[in-house]
Amino acid sequence: METAKRIDEEKEQPKVITPRQKKFILMGIIVLLFVSVVLSVAVVEVKKSKSKTLQFISPTVKSFTKTETVSGRVVQSHTETIYVNPTKGSINEIFVKEGDTVTKGQKLFSYEDTTIAAELGQAEVNKKLAETTVTQKNDQIASLEKDIQNAISASQSNTTDANNIDKNATNATNTTNTTNTTNTQEIQSLQAALNTAKEELNAAQLKVEQNTLEAEKLKAQQESLTVNSNNDGVILNLNKSIGQGYKATDKLQISIMQIASNEPFQIEGKLTEEEKAKVEPGQTIKVSSKVVADKSWKGSISEVSNYPMNDPSTNQDKNSKKEAIPYYTFRATLDSQENLYPGYETNLEVIVQSKDLLAIPETSIKGSGKSKYVYVLKKGTIYKQNVKTGQKQGKYVAILKGVKEGDKVGKNPSWTVRPGTKIDLDK
To answer: Does the pLDDT of residue 62 top 80, yes or no?
Structure first.
């Protein structure tokens, strides 16, 4: 009875599954799922391969580029800083305000120098006095020349009259000789006065020239007291502490304003030694900025410095043993500057190399690493052809070795494609 009772109790107890059994069961389920997925994919691929004929294309020549990415900042193409000149006196008047747009030659500000004004006034007076003297001397010379001409005419008239008188008339002859002597002396006196007047005229004319040159020199100095803009641009950083009557000292160089050029913006930045070896003037660039999303600009590198500069940040700690890091400055021009403003940080993709290479779609390539291959069609038969690939660009991959122009390459072969398969493209 007890034995039968014990057997009944054992039957009523549930069976316990061990961890090892659970592991085997789980592995079995995973294997079944994997096999199911593989079979499903195989069925789909077989259906695709049956429903779609393998297409063949020829490799095409495409331009592949290598780029170097560097950073830069948008700047004005040129910014001129104007300083106060202490040798020109005090500030007289400022003609512009910050933010004003100015043109080349426009007045910016002027200095005041009373000494130059006084000297110019005196030079103008001296010039007028000399010109008056010239006028007077010209009149005097004209009068003397007329008097001399009259005296000569009178002398000639007396001589003619004497010749008409009887030669035996001694008294008449003596009278005539006396008259001729008087006329000759008068002419000589007038001629001496004329020579003196001409010398004085030359001196007066020299005075006019000297005073004219002096006045022009002083006018140029006075005009230099007005500072004009050298370029078209915008007034920036106008020094508000400088006004009428301000005079700088010789020991200080004080900026009064800056003029930012209206010419198209540029990009400036720094290059490491490695970047300098790759980047050079004339290379094409593509510019982007985080500030302006989904937009880019094109341009080119305009200049690259050949002289290194040291990064000042590495020299802050005098006790540091780190060597200063050299860098090279560069500038780039832009084809357009829409939505860009000075100060924007930018990234530049610099095209450092460009080559035309044979290319095929990436989907044509099978395998991986050094074991890449494509399917080519030769005389109606599919062959497996190993290839050496290069740079990828978009959906295309450069082919460095393995296929050539005119070859027929499978465009998007499935795993069901088999070398040796005959294909009639005419069907």
So the answer is: yes
